[in-house]
Amino acid sequence: PDVIIEAQFDGNDAEHGQDHLQDTLTDDIKKLSLDTGEKGETKQDDGPKVNDPRLLPDKFLQRTAKVVYILEKKHSRAATGFIKLLADKNSELFKRCAMFSPVDHRVPRAYVSLADCPPDFVTRPEDYSNMLFICRIVDWKEDSNFATGQLAKSLGQAGEIEPETEGILTEYGVDFSDFSPEALECLPQSLPWVISPGELAKRRDLR
């Protein structure tokens, strides 16, 4: 009863059922617990000491790790969201920063400079309560609950198709800029263009 064991089991254990798992844990606990003699005397078991995790079987150990270096930043660090004033109006941070709340809750909230916000945001913040913005996270200090971001642009009203689409494409790093003249020159220049009968005969029509 004095031994707490964190156990892990794989699919093989699951196939044998819960009873098999219970029997296995019971046998292992007996090996690690104190052995009581016939006369009520207790003696230390010859098995491994439970206070030294290095002597426990691997299946009782939870492997842990620590991130030591970011090799490549896969995320674009850009997010779509809303800006609002800070709650504490008496703080020095209120005079310098606003709060950016991303739509995607997997992205942290961030402080953004008031200089990046619209000029009348401080006096009329309610006008921007439903306005979508693109913010790019530039830093996140270890001693801060919020990241530091920089507003990139205003997208427009939330709920409209074009701002929402542009926000999604920007977040995932999709290049949606216009094609270059060199790329457009590869297309047929004589319009309207139609598929020739010979080419159409070789294709399967999925229209």
From TrEMBL:
It comes from Herpetotheres cachinnans (Laughing falcon). The keyword Hydrolase applies. Gene3D superfamilies: 2.40.50.700. It is found in: Cytoplasm. SUPFAM superfamilies: Nucleic acid-binding proteins (SSF50249). One of its GO terms (molecular function) is poly(U) RNA binding. Its main location: cytoplasm. Keywords: Cytoplasm, Exonuclease, Hydrolase, Magnesium, Metal-binding, Nuclease, RNA-binding. It holds the Pfam family OB_Dis3. Residues 13-55 have a biased composition (Basic and acidic residues). Coiled coil: none annotated. Residues 9-55 are annotated as: Disordered. One of its GO terms (cellular component) is P-body. Residues 98-173 form the CSD2 domain. GO terms for biological process: miRNA catabolic process; mRNA catabolic process. The lineage of its organism: Eukaryota, Metazoa, Chordata, Craniata, Vertebrata. This is DI3L2 exonuclease.
